[in-house]
Amino acid sequence: MFKKILSSAILFFSLLNNCVFADSSNWYDNFLFHDPSFNFELIRTLGYAYSGGADLGESVSTAKEIQDGNDFSWYEHWLKTADRLYDTAEKMQSNNHIISARGAYFRACNYYRSAGFYMDAPEYRDQSKSDYKKSKDSFLKAIKSLPYIQTIQIPYEKTTLPGYLLRSAQKNAPLLIVHTGFDGTAEELYFEAGLAAHERGYNVILFEGPGQGSVLREQHLPFRYDWEKVVSPVIDYAMTLDNIDKNKIALLGISMGGYLAPRAAAFDDRIKACIANPGLYDFGENIYKHLPPELLKLLAQNPAEFNNQIYAIMKKDPMLSWFFNHSLWVFDAKSPADVMQIVKQYSLVKVADKIKCPVLVIASDEDSFDKNSVQAKKLYDAIKSPKTFLKFTPHEAAQAHCQMGAIAISNEYILNWLDDTFGLNK
């Protein structure tokens, strides 16, 4: 019986990976890889070229050396490129070519992040930690020559949360607080949204919370579902800063942050605008729907055997392997069955209707983590405060998860909405 379950589950995830994650209408399908996850992560890395975090030749030439679907080949070649760029930046810096060094450091930062992406299994986490440390080091060296950005430490319970403050040149400017989601870093947020907001005159705080970046890798703090306990201390810190309009504080959550940010907004009225990119109403529900009925039945009746089956499938399915290995780490879970229980807590049912501020709920037509925008629509419907639903489509070539590969138009639409909400364009 169990062999039958395993066989059908492997078939299910194979179909899922090829028919759901890699929808044929995405513009980057089979770009340089057949593996859909590799294609998406390549576009994620390459897409930051718009904001100085990558270059076309470096990225494509690196990708062409990678063995399709091989996590270690991915790691090896991105690390090689990142190390080369870092060494180049060091030489430029020593020769006082500050601007050139900054650019090379920024690109190295992004390539180091990409190198460690799949290194989440317990036996490979040292590589993930090392790559993250190198990524952050590169970023810190890049921003030394930028007067508008500084590192910050935000008091949080008995420790602090790391972040960056981008100061606006304008007086009493509004503040945009940005956090990532399931697997991003604060440094990545600079390329993804921070620079774009700063260029429009916003003060910006980019930070990492429990389960993210160095808070996970160095402080060993896992995710928590009650994200308001994370964001409220960030706002407390922001209230101590000068030259910030305390009545115009916005919160942007990216990827899984599309659950986290609305959760925080529901419990802290100091947040005057909230952006969920994408909208995520019930993280647990979204995970459960990707499991075949046979495995869900096994989860309920025999968790130990469920774990055995998942571990067996993980050997055959790279995407499932990454998801559970990463989940075991970021949730501090003991087993796949434990992960499935933990994710149930990450729901906005009976929470979303408590939000009082204007909310922008974002969806992407071919978001492989929210097919047909089901989660985004549920969140939008549950919100009772002023709300806007923004869907990115193939027309803008921005239909992928978090509009990866199209951050220019993504930030244009999102920050236009925020400008309008705060009345900044009048």
Notes on the structure:
There is one protein chain. With 426 residues, the protein is of the alpha/beta class. The protein has two domains: 52-146, de novo design (two linked rop proteins); 148-282 and 346-426, 3-Layer(aba) Sandwich (Rossmann fold), CATH 3.40.50.1820. It is 50% helix and 13% strand. The protein is built from 17 helices and eight strands. The protein has an eight-stranded mixed β-sheet, with helices on both faces. Helix 1 packs across helix 13 and helix 4 (71-94) runs antiparallel to helix 5 (98-115). The longest helix has 24 residues, at 71-94. It is globular and about 60 Å long. The N and C termini lie far apart (67 Å).
Features:
single chain, 426 residues, alpha/beta, de novo design (two linked rop proteins), Rossmann fold, 8-stranded mixed sheet, 17 helices, 8 strands, globular
Question: What can be said about this structure in brief?
Answer:
The protein is α/β, with parallel strands linked by helices.
**H/I helix tally:** 17
Overall tally of structural domains:
2
Q: Residue share in helices? A: 40-55%
Proportion of beta-strand residues: 5-15%
* Element-level helix/strand string: HHHHHHEEEHEHHEHEHHHHHEHEH
- What separation lies between the terminal Cα atoms? 67 Å
Secondary structure elements and their pairing?
Elements lengths: L1 H20 L14 H12 L8 H10 L5 H24 L3 H18 L9 H19 L5 E8 L2 E8 L6 E7 L6 H14 L3 E5 L5 H5 L10 H11 L5 E11 L2 H9 L7 E5 L5 H6 L4 H9 L1 H12 L3 H13 L5 H7 L16 E6 L9 H9 L4 E6 L14 H15 L5
Parallel strand pairs: 3-4, 3-5, 5-6, 6-7, 7-8
Antiparallel strand pairs: 1-2, 2-4
